[in-house]
Amino acid sequence: MKLLEKSQIRSWDLDTIDHQNISSFDLMLRAASVFSNWFQSLFFDKTRTIHVFCGMGNNGGDGFCIASLLAKAGYEVNVYLFQFNNRFSDDNLSRQKEVESFDKFEKFTPFPLEQKDLIIDALLGSGINGPLKGEYLKLVSWLNALPNKIISIDIPSGMDPDQPTSGSFVHADHVLSFEIPKISFFLNENSDYIKNWDYRSIHLNPGFVEDLKVMNYLIDYDLVKSILRQRKATENKKDFGFAQFCGGSPGMLGSVILASKAAMRCGLGRLAVSTPSIYHSSLFSSCPEAMAQADLPKNVSNLVDFQLVNEHVDAIAIGPGLSSAKESVRYIDEFLKANKKPAVLDADALNIISRNKWQPRIGAYSIISPHKEEFERLFGTCDSHYSRIQKQIEKSKELNIFIILKGAHTTISSPDGSCYYNNTGNVGMGTAGSGDVLTGMLLSFLAQGYTPLETCILAVYLHGSAGDSAAFKYGNIALIASDIIEFIPSVIKNINGK
Ligand SMILES: NC(=O)C1=CN([C@@H]2O[C@H](COP(=O)(O)OP(=O)(O)OC[C@H]3O[C@@H](n4cnc5c(N)ncnc54)[C@H](OP(=O)(O)O)[C@@H]3O)[C@@H](O)[C@H]2O)[C@@H](O)CC1
Ligand SMILES: [K+]
Asked: Quick one: which residues bind (6S)-NADPHX (predicted)?
């Protein structure tokens, strides 16, 4: 799904008014009806009073319109207008006439509310320009200290739709965004405050967004479904890719097993594993589907000759459990020199690259999947998660690589400067081996012939979804990496139908 910046949302709004021959006044009614239906499906108990807090722009106009619809639906509704200057939007002024009465505040003073009552936040929407000022600040601090449930229209008031908010904003319990979610819903800076959000279409002109160039996307079910291929009955294992996984070192076998199993569960045809031979029997007992790489003449510490590998495999993943021993450094050096195949680099491969400043040697269109610490070792420290994402995009362009920055909302950056936000996954996945499972999934899709971008999208989304299913069964405290693998089959089957 395309994620639009606030200026683009505004243009979409105007384009719809133009193309659908609808007035902005009527478009507001459409949005208010959508909100009101959604609200009634969630909060059907009509014994609680609803307090609608309206600002002076169109978000406030939505508030008046929604208050009138909810009153007609039988709710007890109180409306408040916060008029901190004289610049009303036209539609706001018109919609004020639809409610029987409202209290007006030119300066904010606190007033009592019953704890069980609900608050609808219609103070400010996507028209925000800069941090909250003056009376709004006092009002929002008061709202945030109340025990009442707050439901925001379009966006929590004060929140910047495109980037982290430098001031304060309403800490909403629920948000209904119009048409599409806002970019800022996926920023780590906001994740403690934006838990229950949803979006509903208000039927803005679809043609506008089809042609619109955007730099931000949300990875959603429809996108993943459109990428995941159906198999033909006549295909066989040779059609599903041959992958090479290189990793493991003394004491570090687990990552090899987790990655291998995850790779096979994502539909890989054949998998060869390069790992020290002392581990081959353990690997076979845990993942009999994998082949272990025999000792080859030029092996470094029982690893593999990349020139030779390149002739046979469709993709390589390298790094998990490799250690940063001298032999592993030589191994990565060899790999960077010789590899010609689509590749995934993770864990110790990234640590070795950052220590030796080999970043410019990473092959074009490779995928790297660092977590925050690995990322900062590679590219330097950042003072916020948002600035880390900006650097991620910049480095993808500069190095011509795909970067998966793992975290609460994993982001994928592509060499063309676009950024994909993921919304699956949970805190329970921050556990040993979870990243190895992702590496195995990436390797699998890459070897099956998906493009690097498709590979990143599929693996990141499905990894998070499998983690969500695992957390549903085991809880996010008990969840371990093997549980994620347990649920890969069902999440793929749910999407692909096969
Ligand atoms: N997209 C769509 O298709 C549709 C959108 N719709 C709705 O329109 C909403 C957008 O409406 P909008 O553009 O009128 O702006 P809005 O958010 O009400 O804010 C403007 C007010 O905020 C004030 N203000 C600004 N910054 C401030 C600050 N830092 N601190 C304090 N005040 C600040 C500003 O004051 P001023 O700058 O004039 O001093 C002005 O009074 C959108 O969110 C959605 O709800 C639907 O009705 C129909 C379909
Ligand atoms: K709002």
From this structure: 58-62, 125-131, 136, 154, 321, 371, 436
